[in-house]
Amino acid sequence: MPFENEARLAQFRSSRGALLMGSAILIGLFTLLSGFGDAEGFVHANRIWHEGRFVWGEALRSLAGFQFGMIMFWLALWKLGDFGVVTVETQTLFWFVATIIGVALLSGRILRWPAVDQAVSVGVLAGLAWLMYRGAR
């Protein structure tokens, strides 16, 4: 009988590992989608005023981006809880990094920055991540 119990234990560990891997993939996917949605919201929000006039199309695109981003963030929180990530600082850290990178890429301006400025921006993000991580402890 010990062999049978060991086989069940191995099967359990294997299926648990697969579930955790699936959750990790979903966390990454939901976080990236949340950051992308909010980045879209920020980029379009920047365009809602044109020559002193309110541009409804940009406002609606901004609203849709933020709404999509929030729904994806809620889904990321659902899976982050499976990993025991329950502090708001740590949860927000994932979103913040995805969003700021999304804004930088969607606006396209970061690609025109000098290399030293790009390197500093990575350092700043790393510093903010460190402070948020330490604050969550």
Physical arrangement of strands within the biggest beta sheet? 1-2
Helix content: over 70%
Number of helices: 4
Oligomer: single chain
Major β-sheet profile: 2 strands, antiparallel
What's the alpha carbon Rg, rounded to whole Å? 20 Å
Q: How far apart are the first and last residues' alpha carbons, in Å?
A: 45 Å
Can you tell me the residue ranges where pLDDT is under 50 for at least 5 consecutive residues? none
β content, as a range? under 5%
Shape from CA axes? globular
Number of β-strand runs: 2
What is the mean predicted local confidence, pLDDT?
85
- Structural class computed from helices and strand pairing: mainly alpha
SSE string, helices as H and strands as E: HEEHHH
Keywords:
137 residues; 4 helices; mainly alpha
Give an overview of the whole structure.
82% of the residues lie in helices and 3% in strands. It is mainly alpha-helical. A two-stranded antiparallel sheet has the order 1-2. β1 (49-50) and β2 (53-54) form a beta hairpin. It is globular, with a radius of gyration of 20 Å.
Summarize the model shown:
82% of the residues lie in helices and 3% in strands. It is mainly alpha-helical and 137 residues long.
How do the helices and strands line up, and which of them pair or pack?
Layout: H1 2-45, E1 49-50, E2 53-54, H2 56-82, H3 88-107, H4 115-135
Antiparallel strand pairs: 1-2
